[in-house]
Amino acid sequence: MEGKYKEIGEQIKKGALIIYPTDTVYGIGASIQSEKALIHLYQAKSRNFSSPLIALVDSVERISEIAYVDSKKELLEKLSQTFWPGGLTVILPAKDCVPKIMISGGNTVGVRIPNHETALEIIRAAGGILPTTSANISGEATPSSYQELSEAIKKKADIVIDGGICPVGEASTILDFTKDSLQILRLGAITKEEIEAVIGKI
What we know:
Layout: H1 2-13, E1 18-20, E2 27-29, H2 35-45, E3 54-57, H3 60-63, H4 73-83, E4 88-93, E5 108-112, H5 117-125, E6 129-134, H6 151-156, E7 159-160, E8 173-176, E9 183-186, H7 192-199
Parallel strand pairs: 1-7, 3-5, 4-8
Antiparallel strand pairs: 1-2, 2-6, 3-6, 4-5, 8-9
């Protein structure tokens, strides 16, 4: 399999779009190094450019390459020890190296480490950071299994990985670290109670 992942990584680096399974739902990703590929990803989904992509990463250490973590480092460490890899996305201040198209011209970036070996192998092969969003045409249901992927979205991707059913089957919970107090932007795989059990009331 190692050779296969290497080949997939090379294709992504050359601009290929990939549909692949994660722990939460199926994602569609493109190289962070290729603005052309990121534009292609938005077009493939018929996605509005005002909706940012999330960076799936292969390790906690990788996050500091694209985001500033210092101001909330202690909180982030507590959450990462409990929920990563897993279904928590955190929004952090983005570094200048993050393509503006990926973050809708803003100054924040969402990051997550998926709890899924195939996803992590693909992310590693692609360079450790893979801008991703759910693998559906905008407006369609979010696919939590290979069977739920629409033919329309599969036709738009260059690589489609059949990983069966996503073990969690629900989108990640999104937590915004960029305001004075933490805010939950989307409830998903992890509950508010689970988060508060780790870091106290939010």
